[in-house]
């Protein structure tokens, strides 16, 4: 179960968190709420007549931050 959930979340850009006690649940939920409230969605679009790029790079200026990308419209 842990292998499947860990692999699934890694492949979809998420993560797997295991909370071992109910006393740790409140802290973990506050951390998750903070992360969710500090996310941004950036959409990149180009005119249809242009040749599509082979790659698109997603990054964050601060190395402590995580940038994730996904393809849309396929």
Question: Can you describe this structure?
Answer:
By secondary structure, the chain is mainly alpha-helical. Helix content is 35%, strand content 0%. The chain has helices at 2-11, 22-37. It is elongated, with a radius of gyration of 17 Å. The two termini are 31 Å apart. 0% of the residues are buried. The mean pLDDT is 80.
Summarize the helix and strand pattern as letters: HH
Question: How many DSSP helices?
Answer: 2
Strand content: under 5%
**Coarse shape:** elongated
State the end-to-end CA separation.
31 Å
Biggest beta-sheet profile:
none
- Tell me how many strands there are: 0
Rg is: 17 Å
In the predicted model, the low-confidence regions spanning at least 5 consecutive residues are: none
- Helix content class: 25-40%
Mean pLDDT: 80
Class of secondary structure makeup: mainly alpha
Record the SSE blueprint.
Layout: H1 2-11, H2 22-37
Q: What are the salient characteristics of this protein?
A:
74 residues; single chain; mainly alpha; 0% strand
Task: Give a nutshell description of this structure.
The chain is mainly α and 74 residues long. It has helices spanning 2-11, 22-37.
